[in-house]
């Protein structure tokens, strides 16, 4: 059965107009166990289908290296493209530089503006539909 939203005590996911959104609770710290929970919930709401994901990190206090490594290795199932939303232009620059060097397996870009992030995902989705 497909669900339209899932949550736990630190993150919420929901589907809206064919886009997967997520938002963390304010001040959350992401360690390996919480990252495993994030990946599990995202896979649950994806229902085995690839998603266009707007991943809002604005409320996150920090993410441990172990959690980032776990997400890099195990967190890419059921994704067509990812737009990450952050609060800082410096953070955006650092992430986007890292992404260019890493060359992810799907379109992946970091934004500071939610509307621009959503517009980018919708453009990719539209191209994929053709």
From TrEMBL:
It holds the Pfam family DUF7793. Residues 13-124 form the DUF7793 domain. This is STAS/SEC14 domain-containing protein. It comes from Flavobacterium sufflavum.
